[in-house]
Design goal:
Layout lengths: L1 E4 L4 H12 L5 E4 L10 H6 L7 E4 L2 E4 L1 H11 L13 H27 L4 H23 L12 H14 L10 H14 L1 H8 L8 H6 L8 H7 L2
Helix pairs in contact: 1-3, 1-6, 1-8, 4-5, 4-6, 7-8
Keywords: Cytoplasm, Transferase
Family: Belongs to the GST superfamily. Theta family.
Subunit structure: Homodimer.
Length: 232
């Protein structure tokens, strides 16, 4: 299996973490987004959408992080601990519920804070949206449980933690004053292993040079309208 990844990307980190955590052998294929490598002719032959992550399993190519996560979980279900993607209908539905909710909520709001340097009033609004998503994560999804689906970690927790770390990397401490969220983060780190958690987030925690790299790359000019739309 080949995984085309850039660990600056939250979805890439979730795929990386799951593959490592459940012991799937893979070849790491780095696609540097800040250098515009996703626009290369070579990568375009792998994914015409020019996005990561991408999984190549033999001749089968799959895009979209949630699809890749589910593929890996279902392919290895016979040897996999059930808690990652429970067989129980209702517990699995809870995992899928979170995966469906997060994309336009925690992911969208965390990405907005991470990607954009904007006027203070708009950044304040972006942080407020992020805080509302974090509160929903606590109140609806975590409630008083150790993890999103119950007593053990699931793929939903992986997808959640990588999104939350994204704005943290910019210096915004989203865990401040959130004891429930902080305790959950520590349980996720322990369940994954401190070493693996640190490995996955090493690149993003050194993110200081990324905005300048992106500004210096003309291939990324086409992304500006997308970023501006986030603030409309």
């Amino acid at each position: 299996m080949e995984l085309y990844l850039d660990l600056h990307s939250q979805p890439c980190r979730s795929v990386f973490l799951l593959a490592k955590a459940i012991g799937i052998p893979f070849e790491f294929k780095l696609v540097e987004l800040s250098a515009g490598q996703q626009y290369s002719e070579e990568f375009g032959k792998i994914n015409v959408m020019r996005k990561v992550p991408v999984m190549k399993d033999g001749s089968f190519v799959l895009t979209e992080s949630v699809a890749i996560l589910k593929y890996m979980l279902q392919k290895h279900s016979s040897s996999l601990a059930d808690h990652w993607y429970p067989a129980d209908l209702q517990q699995r539905a809870r995992v899928n519920e979170y995966l469906s909710w997060q994309h336009m909520n925690l992911r969208a709001h965390g990405s907005k804070v991470f990607l954009l340097k904007v006027p203070k009033e708009k950044m304040d609004a972006a942080v407020q949206d992020l805080n509302q998503s974090l509160q929903m994560l606590e109140d609806k999804f975590l409630q008083n449980k150790p993890f999103i689906v119950g007593d053990k970690i699931s793929v939903a927790d992986l997808v959640a933690i990588v999104e939350i770390i994204q704005p943290v990397a910019t210096g915004l401490d989203v865990f401040e004053g959130r004891q429930k969220l902080t305790a959950w983060r520590e349980r996720v780190k322990k369940a994954l292993g401190e070493k693996l958690f640190a490995e996955a987030h090493e690149v993003i925690m050194k993110v200081g040079s990324l905005p300048q790299q992106m500004q210096n790359n003309s291939n990324l000019e086409m992304l500006k309208p997308k970023f501006q739309k986030l603030l409309s």
